[in-house]
Write a structure and sequence with these properties.
This protein has helices at 10-23, 35-41, 76-82, 98-114, 153-160, 182-195, 209-223, 234-247, 274-280, 288-297, 318-332, 348-351; strands at residues 2-6, 53-62, 65-75, 86-94, 119-122, 134-137, 164-175, 198-199, 253-257, 263-271, 301-309, 337-340, 343-344, 359-371. By secondary structure, it is α+β, with helices and mostly antiparallel strands.
């Protein structure tokens, strides 16, 4: 018998956060989230998104054993902005049993209808910086800290429940070239000379902070037109700055400013932490921190977290400056390839950046949608 109950107790929260780690214990491609970060995400005192969202979380049990989890989220700011009544599902993990998925979604649907919602999308979380998109291609590829992993049967369950495609994201593996491309170098030099661009260099992480806040305000502006995007609040920006500052290496943060020291574009990359997180099962202690620090010093793979350019400066060489410097740093550190984060499939402006490199589109993930009037 399958029983679904709301997550309320400390024991339930522990099960909720650790369930996917146990589910994927024998799946080498799965990379766990940092449990510490997950706990903060669901703590209204520590996650400023709770200023305009409300959530509910459920666990499914069979014979006393956890067999699934899911969270529902209502983003009131987004609904007001888009004139919608949409509920999001996320943190969806389940054994290969359709009845478990059905009961989990029944619980979310009941909660959503009680709150007047008539549409469900997901997996999509608190903001665009959260993990989103169900993996539908690339199950044999190793995951990233910033992306979801799931078994192929998840998509089968969702389709059987009546969900259909809303939008797809694609991801690329980009080989680091053996030498700098002269074409990019010329574009960079010309753009910097003609427009007065300056690429910042930092000696301490503290020096990055004043620019980091500018970066995320500009990120809001740059990503405003993309599907499902909602601007980060000042509190969310403060939280994002702390998170990224903790993970980045100064070698891999690239900020382009103008003559007035205003941020025009930025790129954030980081040494892949996938192996460290996998070995530590998402925990920082006792050895998680050591493994993370070791990965920061010795790595052959880079994860590309974000790249953004102020809309008025797109197509004016800022991207080229960021990419060119990123390639140089990757070559200096002996990096073999870089992994992009998810990019909307119709975002050809971003994807055109990789045309001068040897690339492989190796993953695809999907946001699903359904109207709640339909039976499940």
């Amino acid at each position: 018998m399958i029983i679904v109950r709301e997550v309320t107790t400390r024991a339930d929260w522990h099960t909720f956060h650790t369930f996917p780690i146990n589910l994927y214990a024998d799946t080498p491609q799965y990379i766990p989230s940092l449990i510490q970060d997950e706990k903060r995400s669901f703590n209204p005192k520590k996650n400023p998104a709770y200023d305009y969202v409300e959530t509910i979380c459920f666990l499914a049990f069979a014979d006393g054993r956890p067999v699934g989890r899911i969270s529902g989220l209502i983003n009131h700011r987004m609904n007001e902005l888009k004139h919608e009544r949409t509920v999001r599902f996320h943190r969806y993990d389940v054994i290969d049993d359709f009845e478990v998925s059905k009961k989990l979604f029944d619980a979310i649907t009941c909660w959503a209808r009680e709150h007047g919602m008539n549409r469900m999308i997901g997996p999509i979380g608190f903001s665009n910086l959260d993990k989103q998109g169900l993996l539908v291609e690339g199950f044999e590829e190793t995951g990233m800290l910033i992306t979801l992993y799931n078994h192929p049967y998840y998509e089968e369950h969702l389709q059987k429940l009546g969900f259909s495609k809303d939008v797809d994201w694609v991801e690329y593996r980009i080989a680091v070239p053996e030498k700098i491309d002269d074409r990019i170098e010329r574009i960079c030099n010309l753009a910097m000379k003609r427009n007065g661009y300056r690429l910042l260099e930092f000696k301490t992480k503290r020096a990055v902070v004043p620019y980091a806040k500018q970066m995320f305000h500009m990120y809001n502006e740059s990503f405003a037109a993309l599907h499902g995007f909602i601007a980060l609040s000042d509190k969310q920006i403060d939280r994002a700055v702390k998170q990224f500052i903790g993970l980045i290496s100064l070698d891999y943060i690239f900020i382009v400013v103008d003559a007035e020291d205003q941020v025009l574009g930025f790129g954030i990359m980081a040494p892949s932490l996938s192996t460290a997180l996998k070995k530590s099962k998402g925990r920082l202690f006792p050895l998680g921190w050591y493994r993370i620090l070791r990965s920061m010093r010795h790595h052959t793979v880079l994860d590309m977290y974000l790249i953004a350019v102020k809309p008025a400066y797109q197509g004016r060489g800022v991207n080229a400056v960021i990419i060119n410097e990123g390639v140089k740093k990757a070559m200096e550190h002996g990096v073999h390839f870089a992994e992009t984060g998810p990019e909307l499939e119709e975002n050809v402006n971003v994807q055109s950046q990789w045309k001068l490199f040897q690339v492989r589109q190796h993953k695809r993930r999907r946001c699903f949608v359904k109207t709640l009037e339909e039976s499940i």
